[in-house]
Design brief:
Number of helices of chain A: 30
Number of helices of chain B: 5
Distance between the termini of chain B: 41 Å
Largest sheet of chain B: 2 strands, antiparallel
Number of strands of chain A: 29
Shape of chain B: globular
Number of domains of chain B: 1
Shape of chain A: globular
Radius of gyration of chain A: 37 Å
CATH architecture of chain B: Orthogonal Bundle
Structural class of chain B: alpha+beta
Largest interface: A-B, 27 and 21 residues
Strand content of chain B: 5-15%
Oligomer: heterodimer
Radius of gyration of chain B: 15 Å
Strand content of chain A: 5-15%
Strand order of the largest sheet of chain B: 1-2
Order of helices and strands of chain B: HHHHEEH
CATH superfamily of chain B: Winged helix-like DNA-binding domain superfamily/Winged helix DNA-binding domain
CATH class of chain B: Mainly Alpha
Distance between the termini of chain A: 36 Å
Helix content of chain A: 40-55%
Chain lengths: 1012, 115
């Protein structure tokens, strides 16, 4: 009530006026001015109290009127329950969809880290103008790194262990902690052997993070020493699931990769890993690293300044500002890098460029490059089969004789994206300037530790846009309903206005009604949202190798979001009809009711057009969502129908790593042959083979070699896959020319690998390789590939002479790491002494054979755990999970949008028919046929749908390009999708118009004319 | 339009003041000071109203729609707020007066039972 506010505002002036009059009266009575004023004041009393009491008079009005409005609103709802139900349901769907997606965004991106005072925690990030000259680099995958062969301005979050100690010694932080992935862990000593995930952490890790133990104790500094007895702490969830939460689990001994560890405690429940979404089963002290790792892979990294593998966290001191700490740390780092005992960057002068592989040819230069999480991108690259989740393992194998720095090619995930690496010849040679020297940045841990968050960011944003559109549709839908109703209530409003109700008062009452609807919709929406979010999260989780530990459920932020959205919706859909109502011209409206005039009121035409506009908007918005969904569905279809080059059906896949159970070199090869034989004999199995990684698992390896006839330092690149015997027949990859590997081939490969590891003699003959058609096309052209040799290298300071490779066969092209990546040149090499993935071709349902296969392997060695037991089709599904998720959800939202838009259309037409009953009656009485009446209504519906479709397609042309990164083999302007979507919509719109039209034809002219 | 709390307060002294204000306005619109003066004058200055308490009462009456406010100019040509009795207020005045008569009569009977 505005007038009350004005009255109160003017109260001061009123009181002043009053006192002045009284003073004047007193003066007139002969008092002195001073005295007169004093008397007047006294007579008036305490001004403050008067004001207070006056304000008090109005205090409860708002509440009273609100209560009144609510009761009135409830009565209106009771009067038209169908309207209320449709409105609330529509709003609940709109708000619920938004809340569901927002709660996911909240869980994945906004939740604060599960540690004490997360705002004080920073992660250290180095950057420089060129890559450091180091021997090994390992990223935990928690923090985006940009360290690629030849890339300018590299950066990352991994540091050497000596550097970690230096940073701790600077005393800039109140606590410093470091961590790295523990690599694959085979657990024995607690039921059947299994693979678990673990993290190596510095002794003060938990202390720095402020985490306590739920049982026993957390790790301490004294645990983190090479002489301390090996201890482990468990994840709370893992403790519950694998030790049933037993108290006596603390103190028990488990074996990890054959080393006994004592469980000393369980970390408190909230902590599953420092990075959002991460979920480790155990934490081990850093000092345990060498004990559980292959010494070759470990490479003495604890003492090396040239092996960067630790992610470092610091807790800021209250008294040291972040920038001050950063300056100090960065200065120390720079000094150490440039002037330390082994300068890793060289300041000033010409630089020989970033490190590049200069190892001997052949197997010696082979790199393992695994897919890891990419810095940002729409697709998921599942973790490497041999590394822990989310890690990028880049293992350089330097020829042992030299140990020259820079013998490592560091490649990161971008390889998996199919970006060609720059050739060694034209790699950028940056000149070092004082301002491109190495620095360290302190990044708030909340923003710096992205982990697997990146891969969800893009789809979540797309889905958020889709649900935002849904909400708009829902709003305009309900606005349309309200509008129709407000037209019906015009007489009521006019009457109330005539009786002296304030327009603001009526507006408020209408807004209260819409807020009531919105609030109810919001509450119901929360219910829908919690179902939806749960379903989505479990879908996502079931498609990950590792469980995802994103916190589910509603927190204050989500509830706040929902409340804000509901409020916004209430105002949005309530406002337009409300303004219409108060604009009512009293007299004609009231008269119309009594005289039942034949004229269609002018107000009627206007309302008609607002209703039309709303329906066109809804249809257009629905088209946008549908087109987006259509494109994503087509992408999924395209990816699914890709010819992968091998038969992906009836194929069981599992990973195995005999070296974790103590097998060495030749033993591994023998073991594989045994297992291959056993598996092939198993009933239901057609054949079995193995390869370093399975095809289409997201993992990718590449190698570099010199091509004969080009300069020695020029390197070419090809994908590479080590395979076992019968690989091609098992995978059903046909030979185009030549033959498969025979026994001698494996012997040569084994010898080459041996020489790589321990410096023994290189084989005298080249390693036989089989290449694919893409390889032939790129490197050989018309030349006969069979017998072609390449990759030879002469003896140099970096290694002995290598005989290189000889092509013995050519096979058909296949996809390698994932479906989207273009087929690129690929060579197959005989596998020897490595971890492997087995492929088992079954006669029938592969799933049914999994237990049999497990049993077969357990018979051979019960201490050897299988990892990632799956089928090729499941693996492809997992590879496509993001596409499936987005396609599924966006189609759901598309259908929702379509339904809502059609309800809107139906509502409008039904209302129109009801309003024009009289007109239709007259038309019928004058001889209009059923068809004419039918056409009258359907035409309007069709016109509206068409207009909406045109606008919608125009709008989607502008919007779909944002989807481009997610699409595959379909253009953002795909005409087929547009046409299909538009026709679908028009069909549904026809159906929606037909119902009210039918009702119109049933109008009895006699009844219609008596109407009102 | 009035709420329960206010109805309960009706028996208080303010209720009386409300009655007096309504009665005063029966002669025509007046501004705040004039109302206070009129009450004082008509009661032969027996009723010494604390003038400030007039304002909460006026607002209460406005809220109940018994009186309305309009802008006008006072006798000495100054802008002033004039309070005017509404038709609702007129009706209410009748009710209040009869209620007051009953109350006064009843109290009188108790105080002077002999008469």
């Amino acid at each position: 009530m505005r007038c009350s506010k004005r009255l109160l505002e003017e109260l001061d002036a009123d009181i002043r006026e009053h006192i002045e009059r009284e003073t004047q009266d007193n003066i007139d009575r002969g008092m002195l001015p001073e005295e007169a004023r004093y008397a007047a004041m006294r007579k008036f009393g305490n001004v403050m109290r008067v004001k207070e009491e006056t304000r008090e008079v109005w205090r409860f009005t708002w509440l009273d009127e609100l209560w009144q409005d609510l009761r009135y609103g409830l009565r209106m709802v009771q009067k038209s329950p169908a309207f209320a139900a449709v409105a609330v349901l529509t709003l609940a769907l709109g708000i619920g969809a938004n809340t569901a997606i927002f709660s996911l965004i909240d869980a994945v991106m906004l939740r604060s880290l599960p540690i004490e005072k997360p705002s004080q925690m920073v992660v250290l990030r180095w950057s420089a103008r060129k890559a450091p000259r180091i021997n090994g680099y390992m990223s935990s995958g928690d923090c985006p790194s940009n360290l690629r062969f030849g890339a300018a301005n590299p950066s990352g979050c991994s540091f050497s262990e000596p550097m970690f100690r230096e940073i701790r010694n600077t005393n800039q932080f109140s606590g410093v902690a470091a961590f790295a992935n523990a690599g694959p862990l085979a657990l024995t000593g607690n039921g059947p052997a299994s693979m678990i995930s673990g993290q190596l952490v510095s002794g003060d890790f938990f202390d720095t993070l402020g985490l306590k133990a739920a049982a026993g104790r957390v790790l301490e500094l004294s645990d983190d020493s090479p002489t301390a007895s090996p201890v482990a702490v468990l994840n709370y969830g893992y403790w519950q699931s694998s030790f049933s939460g037993a108290r006596d689990a603390v103190g028990r001994t488990i074996e990890l990769n054959g080393v006994a560890f004592t469980i000393v405690g369980v970390v408190e429940q909230r902590f599953t890993g420092i990075t959002p979404g991460s979920d480790y089963d155990v934490w081990l002290p850093l000092a345990a690293g060498p004990r559980i790792s292959n010494p070759r892979m470990w490479d003495d990294r604890q003492e090396k300044v040239t092996y960067w593998w630790l992610t470092i966290l610091g807790r800021l001191k209250a008294e040291t500002p972040m920038l001050q700490a950063q300056t100090a740390i960065s200065g120390m780092f720079r000094n150490e890098m440039l002037h330390g005992p082994i300068p890793l960057f060289e300041a000033g002068g010409g630089m020989p460029g970033p490190p590049r592989p200069r190892g001997g040819g052949g197997a010696a230069a082979r790199q393992l490059v695994m897919g890891g999480p990419r810095p940002a991108g729409p697709r998921a690259v599942p973790p490497p089969p041999d590394g822990p989740q989310g890690s990028t393992v880049v293992q350089g194998v330097a020829p042992p004789a030299t140990g020259a720095p820079g013998a490592v090619r560091v490649q990161s995930a971008p390889v998996a994206q199919g970006q060609p690496l720059p050739d060694a010849a034209n790699e950028p040679r940056t000149l070092s300037k004082p301002d491109d020297e190495p620095t360290i940045l302190l990044v708030n841990a909340q923003t710096g530790l992205t982990g697997s968050r990146n891969q969800f960011e893009n789809p979540l944003h797309i889905l958020m846009s889709a649900v935002a559109i849904i909400l708009l549709i829902a709003c305009s839908n309900v606005a349309g309903l309200m509008l129709a109703r407000s037209a019906a209530r015009q007489k009521e409003m006019a009457l109330r206005l005539a009786l002296g109700a304030g327009r603001m008062r009526i507006l408020r009452q209408l807004l209260t009604e819409s807020m009531m609807l919105a609030a109810t919709g919001g509450l119901l929406g929360i219910v829908f949202a919690s179902w939806g979010a749960h379903a989505i999260l479990s879908f996502v989780s079931s498609n990950q190798r590792q469980p995802l530990a994103f916190a589910e459920g509603l927190d204050v932020r989500v509830l706040g979001f929902t409340a804000a959205v509901s409020l916004f919706t209430g105002i949005l859909f309530g406002l337009a009809p409300a303004f219409r109502s108060v604009r009512v011209d009293v007299t004609p409206t009231l008269k119309e009711g009594f005289s039942a005039s034949t004229k269609v009121s002018r107000a009627g035409t206007r309302r008609f057009s607002i209703g039309n506009a709303l329906v066109v908007t809804q249809v257009a918005l629905a088209i946008v969502v549908l087109v987006g969904a259509g494109l994503l569905v087509r992408t999924l279809q395209n990816l699914r129908s890709i010819d992968v080059g091998f038969d992906s059906h009836n194929l069981v896949i599992f990973g195995i790593n005999p070296s974790l159970a103590g097998y060495k070199d030749a033993q591994i090869d023998t073991f594989y042959r045994d297992m291959q034989g056993r598996l092939t004999e198993t009933p239901g199995v057609k054949s079995a083979s193995y390869s370093m990684v399975p095809l289409l698992s997201g993992a990718l390896m590449a190698t570099m070699f010199n091509w004969p006839g080009t300069p020695q330092d020029r390197q070419l690149e090809s994908d590479v896959l080590e395979v076992g015997p019968d690989f091609f027949s098992t995978m059903q990859i046909p030979f185009v020319a030549g033959r498969g590997f025979d026994f001698s081939g494996y012997g040569i490969a084994a010898q080459a690998r041996q020489s790589l590891f321990n410096g023994s003699k290189q084989p005298a003959v080249p390693t036989p390789v089989i290449v694919d058609q893409a390889f032939v096309a790129k490197f050989l052209g018309k030349e006969n590939p069979l017998g072609k040799r390449f990759g030879q290298s002469a003896a140099s300071q970096e290694g002995p002479a290598s005989p290189g490779y000889e092509i013995i066969g050519v096979v058909r092209d296949t996809k390698y790491s994932d479906l989207r990546r273009e087929i690129s040149p690929k060579m197959y090499v005989p596998l020897s002494a490595l971890a492997a993935a087995f492929e088992v071709r079954t006669a029938g349902d592969p799933q049914a054979l999994v237990p049999v296969i497990r049993h077969t392997v357990a018979q051979l060695d019960p201490n050897l755990p299988l990892r990632d037991v799956t089928t090729e089709s499941q693996q492809i599904d997992r590879l496509l999970f993001q596409e499936r998720l987005v396609a599924r959800l966006s189609s759901f939202f598309g259908l929702l949008a379509l339904t809502l838009a059609c309800i809107g259309l139906y509502g409008l037409l039904a209302y129109e028919v009801a309003r024009r009953t009289r007109e239709i009656g007259i038309r019928t009485a004058l001889g209009a046929q059923r068809g004419d009446v039918l056409r009258l209504v359907v035409k309007q519906g069709l016109l509206l749908a068409l207009a909406g479709a045109v606008v919608g397609i125009g709008a989607s042309m502008g919007v779909t390009r944002y989807l481009k990164a997610m699409l595959y083999d379909v253009r953002a302007y795909d005409p087929v999708t547009m046409v299909v979507v538009a026709s679908l919509l028009i069909l549904v719109a026809l159906a929606a118009s037909f119902l009210p039209a039918r009702r119109a034809t049933n109008v009895d002219p006699m009844v219609a004319l008596r109407y009102e | 339009m009035s709420t329960k709390e206010e109805r309960e307060r009706i028996e208080l002294l303010q209720g009386t003041l409300d009655l007096l204000i309504l009665r005063t306005l029966l002669r025509g619109p007046a501004h705040g000071h004039a109302i206070a003066k009129t009450i004082e004058f008509n009661s032969d200055e027996v009723l010494q109203v604390e003038q400030g308490s007039l304002y909460p009462a006026l607002h209460r009456l406005i809220k109940r729609r018994w009186i309305a406010v309009e802008e006008g100019t006072s006798e000495n040509n100054r802008r002033a707020k004039f309070y005017r009795l509404t038709s609702k207020g007129r009706k209410q005045l009748k009710v209040e007066i009869s209620r007051w008569d009953k109350l006064a009569g009843a109290i009188a009977r108790i105080l002077r039972p002999a008469e």
